[in-house]
Design goal:
The protein has 183 residues and is mostly helical. Helix content is 56%, strand content 2%.
């Protein structure tokens, strides 16, 4: 157990070092306000600097999912339970929509965590992916050092870094490794 806690601490410190600009200096993974929108001038109401590139493979996917989570949060705060999203086309299910991720652990956390801290939730989700993969690798016969190295190497995989902000793709991943670990 002590070795697992030490490994978690190493994973946590490595993630904090890698994502220090997001954690400490006000940078964000969220490309939505600075990506070009449907208007020729860019996103409506945004007067900040333009983004020359995005750090996400699916920048608009994260924008869409964030607006869904904001809709859910506003609905709950106004006293309504968001079964239905009337703003999508002629309406669509919200609560049963997997993209909204409303009942996922991080979806529920987004109800109480301010929007400006949602990047921290994404980083913590990645930390869980790396830690649970470490636990899984450690029971497969790999030495703990090799399991730690393999799980840390996963953090730099393109899939995890490119889709970090797309919550519908990233939220289930740590629980897959957790289920594999739990046998």
């Amino acid at each position: 157990m002590k070795t697992n806690m030490r490994s978690f601490l190493i994973i946590f410190l490595v993630a904090c070092a890698v994502f220090l600009p997001v954690i400490m200096t006000g940078h964000t993974f969220k490309p939505a306000p600075v990506t070009s929108g449907v208007l020729p001038t860019g996103a409506y109401g945004y007067d900040g600097p333009a983004l020359s590139h995005s750090n996400s493979m699916d920048a608009w996917g994260s924008f869409y999912e964030d607006t869904l989570r904001i809709f859910g949060k506003k609905s709950i705060l106004s006293g309504e339970f968001p079964f239905w999203n009337p703003y999508q086309g002629i309406g669509q299910p919200y609560f049963a929509n997997h993209v909204s991720g409303f009942m996922s652990p991080f979806g529920l956390l987004s109800l109480v965590v301010p929007y400006t801290w949602w990047d921290i939730l994404d980083i913590f989700n990645l930390i869980l992916i790396v830690y649970f993969s470490y636990l899984f690798f450690s029971i497969t016969g790999l030495s703990r050092r090799i399991a730690l190295f393999a799980s840390l190497a996963m953090m730099s995989c393109t899939y995890f870094t490119a889709y970090l902000v797309v919550t519908s793709l990233m939220t289930p991943v740590p629980w897959i490794f957790f289920l594999l670990y739990s046998k």
